[in-house]
Design brief:
This protein is an all-alpha fold. It has helices spanning 2-31, 33-120, 135-154. The model is unreliable at 123-133 (pLDDT under 50).
Length: 155
């Protein structure tokens, strides 16, 4: 029985604590002061946050405006840069075409000379011409060798 009495007294204590808590909640809700205090606290905090954000927003705004101006300048420069590159590439193409015509013109001259020499010697007529950068020099050397070999064989 003593155990049952102890348990009942513990339950009574818990019931009293719960009732006290309920009364406190009712009094707080009934007064409404805590709502006003919470609202005031939230407003103060929001003002502080707004101050902090406002400073950062000003910095961000000035940065964006400055970057936009720089981008506008670069966009204005793009057509001029394209024209410069077109002119440069056009001049490079013309120079390359001139070099190619000069090189092909030299090969034709060397072929004509070697052909006249090869007519004299039947062996040199079968010599092939390389199309390297030093092709004209190599062809001239071969033609000389073929001509000297033919002259030796005739003698």
């Amino acid at each position: 029985m003593e155990k049952a009495g102890k348990k009942m007294s513990e339950m009574n204590r818990w019931v009293r604590k719960v009732k006290d808590a309920q009364e406190q909640i009712k009094s707080l809700v009934g007064q409404g002061n805590w709502m006003d205090e919470a609202r005031k606290y939230a407003e103060r905090q929001s003002k502080e946050v707004k101050k902090l954000i406002h400073g950062d927003m000003d910095k961000l705004r000035t940065f964006v405006v400055r970057e936009r101006r720089e981008l506008e300048k670069l966009q204005k420069q793009i057509p001029a840069e394209l024209n410069r590159w077109k002119k440069y590439l056009g001049s490079q193409r013309k120079e390359l075409e001139n070099v190619l015509t000069n090189v092909t013109g030299q090969k034709k001259k060397v072929r004509a000379k070697s052909a006249s020499k090869s007519k004299a010697s039947g062996k040199a007529a079968n010599a092939t011409v390389k199309t390297t950068s030093n092709g004209a020099k190599n062809t001239a050397k071969r033609a000389k060798k073929a001509a000297s070999a033919e002259s030796k064989s005739e003698a």
